[in-house]
Design brief:
By secondary structure, this protein is an alpha/beta fold. The protein has a single domain, classed as 3-Layer(aba) Sandwich (Rossmann fold), CATH 3.40.50. The protein contains 13 helices and 14 strands. Helix 1 links the parallel strand 1 and strand 2. The site of ligand FO1 has 18 residues, from helix 2 and helix 6.
Length: 315
Amino acid sequence: MSHVLALSGGVGGAKLAAGLAAVLAPEDLTIVVNTGDDFEHLGLTVCPDIDSVTYALAGLNDTERGWGVKDETWQAMAMLRDLGAPDWFNLGDRDLGMHLARSARLRAGESLSEATEALTRSLGIAPRVVPMSDAPVRTQIETEAGWLEFQHYFVREQCRPVARAIRFAGGGLAEPSPAFAETLARPDLGAVIVCPSNPFLSVDPILALAGVGEALQARDVPVVAVSPIVGGTAIKGPLAKLMGELGQPVSNAAIAAHYGALIDHLVIDSSDRAEAEGLRAAGLSVTITHTVMCDAEDRERLARVALSAARTETG
Ligand code: FO1
């Protein structure tokens, strides 16, 4: 197939990104990653979704915890606790190495794209892993306690506050990163795969960047989304709770309506097959398959299904 652009958030998206990386030649894939979750913590720049994609592609991800590095140790956290430093955000010792290396590069003047390219190449990752933007965009959630920064909402408050609205501070003005803009304009772009990340928290920040939604609409390239809904709920994370709080039913129909004209095809889980008829009646192409990714075989199979869905849209 010609070039494939994958849009990914953290954990769920990273799994499909790893599947795509396993079945495509590295030069045929660009993975654009949400940076709305990024934040400055203890003087370091932490990019959780870039980390999740990087660790998944390098085979370093902790599959039990869902984030961070496998076989992790926590000596630095123990010391931080002894020192009375903030300990609500868990930085493993190996993971800390990533944040130190990235932050040093950024302080030395590299862009986030340059730093990410150097760090992913150092870990032997061949496809391009690209931050959505080099400009800071920050996802914020409005709750009864006011606006919260993403990691404060997600990790410190464990998504407990009721969400009323979401905004991407800096999003509308921030340009896509150079490699993202270049990929959107590639004449050989053959498919866009929206990974099964949280549409509201992880994919929307990418779509909110200056010109991205318009560029995707203007291209005659199939856009295939893999739904994060399984069995009428979200496998992990705050998606189901958030959709309820935002007044939406937790369904593939709501996911499809949210993406609207952006997507041509939705891949849904077999447990939600009853929804297919309604989605098709609304004009969307639908593939029904097993979307839960427990191992490499699942990831690669789902990647192949998403790519073949794109091929059917190309005709
Ligand atoms: N998620 C947690 O639930 N608790 C943590 O302490 C935590 C630490 C952490 C450190 C580095 C990193 O790259 C990710 C980390 N995550 C943690 C995951 C992260 O906050 C979320 O999964 C994403 O932001 C949502 O995609």
